[in-house]
Structures are given as C-alpha cells and as structure tokens.
Amino acid sequence: MPSQIEILPCDKIDRDKWDACVRGADNGLVYSRYAYLDHMCDKWYGAVIGDYDAVMALPWRRKFGISYIYQPAFVQQLGFIGNALDEVEILNTVTSITRYGNLLLNYGNTEIALRLAAARKTNFVINLATSYGMIAADYSKDLTANLRKATRDNELQVSNQENIDLAISVYRDTYHHRVQSLVKDDYARFRLLCGDLFRSQMCFTREVRDQASRLLAIGLFVKDEKRIYNLMNTTTEAGRAREANHFLLDAVIREFAGQRLLFDFEGSDLPGVKSFYMKFGAQQQPYFLYHYNRLPVLLKLFKR
C-alpha cells in the first residue's frame, strides 16, 4: 500500500483532523462529518491521504463472509474530500480491501466519476447568497401564483417550533411504502444524530399548518457552514390539496436568503420530484454512484 494512503478503522481516526479536512474542503459535505458517519454507519473505515490532506469515508458491512461498501440511510454523497493526489490509486487501494460495493462519489468528484463510468444521480441546489427577490424571480409561474394565493388569503402559517420526533414520525408513517429499504434501526440512529446536531444548532424543523392548526407539511433540515440540507420533508394528505410543501420550502428559502449558503434539495431521479424542485429555479449539481465487483469469478457470478 502506498505510504501516503492509509485505510483506518473509525476508532483509529483523528477525529479533529478528519473534521477539519471536511469543513475546509469545498466539497466537504455534512454526511462525511465524523459524528454523522458514526451515527449512521454499521461500521466504517476512513481512507486518509497524507496528514488528512484528503479523506474518504467507507461504510461497510459483511455478508456471507464478504466485506462490502454500502450506502447508509440518510447519506447521499461521500467520496473524495480535499486534496487527493491520485484518486485512481486510492480507489485501487480501497477495492483491494473491499472487492465489492457501491461507492458514493460527491459532486466534486466528477472527473474520476467520468473515468469510472459511474452512474450519474440527480441533485438540485439554490444559491441563497442573493436576495429573496432575486431567488424568487426564477420561480415558475404556477409556483409564484400558488404562493401569492396562500399569502393573500392567510390560509397557511409557518411555525418555527422545533419538533424532531414529529418530523421523523410523520415522514415514516407517510412514506414507508416508498422507502422500504429504511428499517426501524435507521430511524432510531437518525433520531439520535438529529438530537446531537440540534444541540450544536445544526438541525431545525419547520411546520406549515392551516387556520385550524392542522399539520399540512413538515420539514427537517440540517445546516452546516456551506449548506442547508433538505433531509426530510413530508406533506400530509390535507397538505397536498393545499400544495403546502411549496409554502414550506419557500419559507425556509426566504428565511435564509442573503446568507452564503446553498439550499440543497437532496434531489431525486423520480420525474415528479424533479419537476417539483425545478419549479424553484433549482440548478442541477449531480453526484455519482460507482458499483464495482472485483470478487473472484465464482463469487462474482453469485453476487452481482
């Protein structure tokens, strides 16, 4: 193994240096923070290049005696972060240790993703650094009309009351049929993570209710120095008829407009969700998924 690359179990990683690399890099997203990984991963290694000049998280599991890289719940992008000297060399080191897996690459890993023919995944962002008026000028006509009606009629109200438990339970109960890969343990881990982030002022919730105080939409958001992450938002049956999710996301964008942040919708390859985010004038910022299988021939046939 080249001396500048180390694959370390998480308990051998210098947590402060790891997080300093993630915070300092343009493409260092919250999913790669040490605490986030520690909450959401079964087990994880860290690829450390030099003196934490670059890092890459490697969540792993073992099945039938085979170790493999997997995508943890509520983690969208990982990949190379910082000043990686030779991504191909690092990747070869990784795949020599875990010969099978799905490796998440972040939006800053485009060059290596193209070389690997990694699958392109959809994500949308809005730059919040300008005024709300300039941001809203890019909204679609029907979105603008819906927001104007809701504001004029005073039908919907946004609440800043923090309620992580409600946000998670409503999401789970409403969308469990869509996200069947999520299990009880995933939600339990995520709840503990959000509690820690909330204490660090990195997690907040927003609700939309009608004049009768019925819940119409609720969102759970994570915030770091670079982004607001739309990790979990839910529209109730009553809220869909009122298009309350438009109102919810617009309220968060309005609240943080003018700050040097991106609003990260977290994207989706579902056509309906993509078109919904595009109504906000969001720009695509794709990330990538690299599937590899370097198992021996007989095992490769067994596990595709």
Structural write-up:
This protein is an alpha+beta fold. It folds into two domains: 5-120 and 287-302, Gcn5-related N-acetyltransferase (GNAT) (Aminopeptidase), CATH 3.40.630; 124-284, 3-Layer(aba) Sandwich (Aminopeptidase), CATH 3.40.630.30. The protein is 38% helix and 27% strand. It contains twelve helices and 15 strands. The protein has helices at 15-24, 34-40, 87-97, 110-116, 132-136, 141-153, 164-175, 184-199, 237-242, 244-256, 271-278, 297-302, and strands spanning 5-9, 43-49, 54-63, 66-69, 81-82, 100-105, 119-121, 124-127, 157-159, 203-209, 215-223, 227-235, 262-264, 283-284, 287-293. β10 and β11 form a beta hairpin. The mean pLDDT is 90.
Describe how the helices and strands are arranged.
Elements: E1 5-9, H1 15-24, H2 34-40, E2 43-49, E3 54-63, E4 66-69, E5 81-82, H3 87-97, E6 100-105, H4 110-116, E7 119-121, E8 124-127, H5 132-136, H6 141-153, E9 157-159, H7 164-175, H8 184-199, E10 203-209, E11 215-223, E12 227-235, H9 237-242, H10 244-256, E13 262-264, H11 271-278, E14 283-284, E15 287-293, H12 297-302
Parallel strand pairs: 12-13
Antiparallel strand pairs: 1-2, 2-3, 3-4, 3-5, 6-15, 7-15, 8-13, 8-14, 9-10, 10-11, 11-12
Helix pairs in contact: 2-8, 7-8
